[in-house]
Amino acid sequence: MIRLLRSIAAVVLGYATIVAGAVIFQDFFFGSISYQDSPWLHLVIGGGLTALSAVVGGYLLAVVAPFRPMIHSIPLVLWLSFETAYLYATEVTAGPLWFDIVSGGSLVVGVLIGAFVFVRFGPTSLRHRKSETSTS
């Protein structure tokens, strides 16, 4: 039961991190970003920082649920994919399809990168465990 709660909390925390990053880096810094109204530099900086928040979200997801973090990232990746499709289909976003795909895709890739960084370099990484056992 605890593992299930941790899994749910991990996905919620990862998503909340992405949402907080989007609000901070797009709305707070630039007053809102849109494909048609924002200068290209705002799109690049705001979009890049939002993608970075997805990396942090993926990493935090893995910290909370370190047992198979790449598997735990699947619900978040699916949610982001469905959310991107929904926002485009309901015309909440005003950009062309390619722009929304790139925006949503950058979040998906960011989550996977964050979880992978934890797996590869985090405190419980396989490489770290092997080095501990070889020095014993």
Q: Assign the structural class, choosing from mainly alpha, mainly beta, alpha/beta, alpha+beta, or little secondary structure.
A: mainly alpha
Low-confidence stretches: none
Give the overall pLDDT as a whole number: 88
Beta strand %: under 5%
Work out the helix count: 5
User: Largest sheet, described in full?
Assistant: none
Beta strands, count? 0
- Give the overall silhouette: elongated
Query: Radius of gyration in whole Å, from Cα?
Result: 17 Å
Please report the distance between the alpha carbons of the first and last residues: 34 Å
Instruction: Summarize the amount of helix as a percent range.
Output: over 70%
* Order of helix and strand elements from N to C terminus: HHHHH
The quaternary organization reads as single chain
